[in-house]
Amino acid sequence: MPVTEVTTDPEALTMTLIADFAAPVERLWQAFSDPRELERFWGPPGWPVTFTEFDPIAGGRARYHMTSPRGEKSRGSWEFLSIDEPAGFEVLDGFVDENGDVDEDMPPAMRMSFAFEPTATGSRLRNVTHFPSADSLDAMVAMGAVEGSTMALNQLDRVLLGLREYAQGKGTQVELIDDTHVRITRFIEGSRDLIWRAHHDSDLMRRWLLGPDGWSMTTCDVATEVGGTYRYWWEQDGVEGSGFGFEGELLLSAPPRRAVTTERMIGMAGPGTLNDLNLEEEDGATLLTLLVEYPDVETRDAILATGMADGMETSYARLESVLATDGALR
Distance of CA 224 to CAs 16, 70, 221, 295, Å? Predict the structure, then answer.
C-alpha cells in the first residue's frame, strides 16, 4: 500500500501522512490539481467525493462533498493559501453547510499542506494537517481521520498507473478492508454506460449474472428508483428444488457511476449486507468496484468461504464474452 506512515503529534498539533508512489512528482501533482482525478481517490471507500468548484490559485477555493452509501453528505471547502507547482500546495480545509457557510457544529478549519518530493523509485507525498487546538485534533482522530486518510490515499495507485495497468488480467480481486468491509474489483472491457446497463437491464442480466454453468436466472425484478425493491432467483437446470435468490432495496442511484443496495438471501434470517457498486471508466474500459459492508466479521468470513469470489469471476467473464460477441451492445 502507498501509505507507509501516519502519525499524530499532540504537542505540535499535527497529523502527518507519508505515502510513496512509483510515479514522478509531475504525475502526482496532476492527480491533485485535476478535480476529476481527485474524485477518483480523495474520498475513502464508501464516501466518494464530488468537487463542485475548483480554482487552484492562491486565494482560490474548492468546494466538495462526500456521499455515504445511505446518501448522507459531508461537505467541505478548501481555500488555497499557496501554490508551488509541481512541488506542492497548502489549503485551509474546513467543514461547510449546504450553502457553503462554515458548519459551526463541526471542528474548525485546519491548515493542510501537500508536499511532493522525488525519490529513487518515484515520488513521496508528505501531507501535514495543522490543527488549531488539541480538542480539534482529538475530535478529528475520533471521527476516523487517520483511517479515512489512509484508505483514501491508498486508492491513488490505480489513478497514477491507469486502470489497465492496475487491474487488467487480474480477474476478480477481493480485498479485506476491515472486519466488516470487503472491496471487490474487476476490470471489464466496455464503457461505463454499457456496464451500468448490464447491471440494470433484466434481459441483459439474465445472460451473464449466472455464476457456474448450468444455472438460469428465472426471476430478475430490478429496482428502478430509490426506495424500490429488487428480487433475483436462480435455478439449477434440471434440478428440482435447487433454487436460491436475493432481495433488497435500492438506497442510492447515481447513473452511470454508483448504485447502493441492501442484500439479503431469500428465506434466511438475520441481517444482510450493504452493497456499494462504483464504475470508473478509462479509455473505453471500466473498473467495477463493489464495496460490501457485512454486519460482523463472522458473517463476512462465512460468506467469503462459500466461494463467492469464484462465482463472481465466472459471471464477469461471461459478461465480457457477451459484450465481445454481441455487436448490438457496442
Answer: 44, 17, 9, 26
